[in-house]
Specification:
By secondary structure, the chain is α/β, with parallel strands linked by helices. It is 34% helix and 20% strand. Strand 7, helix 5 and strand 8 form a beta-alpha-beta unit.
């Protein structure tokens, strides 16, 4: 029997925001992973009184077990795979390549839909905090970090309400710091630690993002 740690994403985001406020980070930028991370990020940005935007990455699920992430794809079209699974999966197999192509299309749709034509903010010399509602295999957050590193932030942190004690080598290497409120053992998935883990829909993501940003221009070069 698992006892939920958080009532819902809004509560988790408030608690996470209060924890991040203790770090006294100068002018941070919150980049939330849609969809659930946007609800978390909204609460964090309100508490820190800072900017909120999104960064999109899509999980590459294992063939015939697509809930299990073996890798992820980021906004620049680069696929990142979990090196610890190299002997278990053929990352160049037709099945995996078909999943990648499908996820590329969904990633492009989400960026275009959620940003309404805006570009990512300038990250050079900014303290960037990537936020999600939890960490499972960690490959999606790692793919986002791999992409964001190229945009030269001053620091890159990952902040989540709940995750495993050992987030994986990719996450640990690509982020400067990981802030995680709870690391239950056994972990057994993100949703178990929320009383209400209802799927966040597109319209809720759009409502939150539209509250923070006017329309702008998104360079096509982000897509492959």
């Amino acid at each position: 029997m698992f006892n939920p740690l958080f009532k819902n994403r809004n509560e988790a985001g408030m608690v996470l925001g209060m924890e991040l406020a203790k770090l006294d980070i100068l002018n941070p930028l919150i980049l939330a992973l849609p969809r659930g991370g946007v609800v978390i990020g909204n609460q964090v940005a309100q508490i820190l009184e800072c900017d909120l935007d999104i960064v999109v990455a899509r999980k590459i699920g294992a063939p015939n077990q697509e809930e299990y992430g073996i890798g992820a794809i980021s906004e620049d079209g680069i696929s990142l795979f979990n090196p610890e699974l190299g002997e278990d999966y053929d990352f160049d197999s037709p099945e995996v390549l078909a999943i990648i192509n499908r996820e590329k299309k969904e990633l492009k749709r989400r960026v275009e839909h959620y940003r309404r034509g805006r570009a990512l903010p300038n990250l050079i010399n900014r303290h960037v905090i990537v936020v999600d509602d939890g960490l499972a295999t960690g490959v999606t957050a790692a793919a986002a970090a791999n992409f964001l590193r190229k945009l030269q932030p001053k620091s890159l942190k990952l902040a989540i309400p709940v995750g495993p004690k050992h987030p994986g080598v990719l996450v640990e290497e690509l982020f400067d710091e990981i802030i995680c409120l709870a690391e239950p053992d056994p972990f057994s998935g993100v949703g178990l630690w929320y009383r209400d883990f209802t799927q966040v829909e597109d319209h809720e993501v759009m409502r939150i993002i539209d509250e923070h940003h006017p329309p702008g221009h998104l360079p096509e070069a982000l897509f492959v």
